[in-house]
Amino acid sequence: MELAIPVVIIFTFFIGSFVMISLHLGQMSARRALPSRDAYLQQSASLACSKCGSSEQREFGLDDQHDQKRIVACAACNKELFQFRREDGTA
Fold first, then answer.
1. CA atoms of 15 and 24, how far apart (whole Å)
2. pLDDT band at 64, cuts 50/70/90?
3. What is residue 43's three-state secondary structure?
4. Residue 59: beta bridge partners?
């Protein structure tokens, strides 16, 4: 019985880690599947958010803040809108 509590704690840690990694991989897969800026413009005819209509946007790198592949999201509702590749290399 002394071994049961540490085994349960370790098992819970591994299951929790697996769930967190699975959620993160799903989110990254969804970001990679976002349309390009040109395709988004063809669908919506403007760069405004398709969910809330806001024109304020924020951008971030797909893998890190210096990544050339950028994800654009609505600043108001955080809906991820489209992706583009930054060519100039500036941060």
1. 14
2. confident
3. helix
4. 72
